[in-house]
Specification:
Blueprint: H1 2-25, H2 31-53, H3 62-83, H4 86-92, H5 95-125, H6 128-142
Helix pairs in contact: 1-2, 1-3, 2-5, 3-5, 4-5
Length: 143
């Protein structure tokens, strides 16, 4: 399970680093650079999202979950902040790039919402009281 955790952690870290480059997009004058940064981040998220939903994390340790969860929240916050400035950012793009840029930003916002949902779910796994309540409910159902 440590291998799955390490791979997921690496993918999340790469996506966080990529999201940092998006913050510079607003300061860049080259439309191509802004679009490239958004597309690079979108590509990283195509690896992160399946890693979050496609593996069995039920055997992950509390420490493994705790090491990834804050990064998920940070990634979601950065992406949502960037994507929500879509109209302003798209308006600054030259006409040939507007459609593509708007589509990428929309996709980033959807991905950010999915990552935020995953982070909230993982955070619940760190809530001992919640985990005990769920375990008690499961135990009483099968008793």
């Amino acid at each position: 399970m440590a291998e799955t955790s390490a791979r997921t952690n690496m993918l999340v870290h790469e996506a966080v680093i990529c999201s940092l480059s998006l913050e510079e997009v607003g300061q860049q004058e080259a439309a191509e650079a802004g679009l490239k940064a958004a597309l690079d981040c979108q590509a990283k998220l195509r690896d992160v999202l399946p890693a979050l939903s496609g593996s069995d994390f039920s055997r992950m340790t509390r420490e493994e979950i705790a090491s990834i969860t804050p990064n998920l929240f940070d990634l979601a916050r950065r992406l949502l902040s960037f994507a929500r400035s879509r109209e302003e950012l798209t308006a600054r793009m030259p006409e040939p790039f507007r459609g593509a840029y708007g589509a990428v930003l929309s996709d980033l916002e959807i991905s950010a919402s999915r990552i935020e949902d995953a982070a909230e779910g993982w955070a619940l796994a760190l809530d001992s009281e919640f985990v005990n309540e769920v375990q008690e409910a499961i135990d009483s159902t099968w008793a």
